[in-house]
Amino acid sequence: MEGINIYLIGMSGSGKSTVSPRLAEHLGYRFVDTDTAIEQLVGQSVAEIFQTSGEPEFRQLETKVLAEISANTRLVVATGGGMAMKLDNWSHLHQGLVVWLNVSVDVLVERLTGGNISPILNTPGDLRTKLQQILAERRDRYAEADIHIPITSNLPPTEIVEQIIDRLNSI
After folding, report:
1. pLDDT in the model for residue 137
2. Core-most of 12, 70, 117, 155, by most CB within 10 Å?
3. How far apart are CA 168 and CA 110, in angstroms?
4. What is the DSSP string of 67-123?
């Protein structure tokens, strides 16, 4: 793989932040979570940024942080769920390999119910319906990933890492 970065994309709750550090360790790469990098940059949580500055400001911060991150090599990067939606971000993502953790809505609902939830989902209404709507908006863009990892049950992160490694080895 010669040091090429690997970017994990997918919905909130898909396991990007859980799988990425394990994948990085397996590959001997460093791990970066873009949400964490944004929080460190501005000294606010993602939820606080959404609340005080709004989603457009957050998306600009995402692009700025991704541009800085993509200048490095040998990284496994957990991206925010909406990062893949901005075309400017694809120029950075496609400098590496993009892996879509394609998690079913049933599994997302199970993972997100009662837990730490994205500001996009933390609004009144049925969680399943919101997830279905957001996934419908994002599916085509996510499908542009180099590797698709379908996840229809709550697999252990190590199994997902093994699936990614198998797919990386076949490229």
Report:
1. 95
2. 12
3. 28
4. HHHTTSSSEEEEPPTTGGGSHHHHHHHTTSEEEEEEE-HHHHHHHHTTS---TTT-S
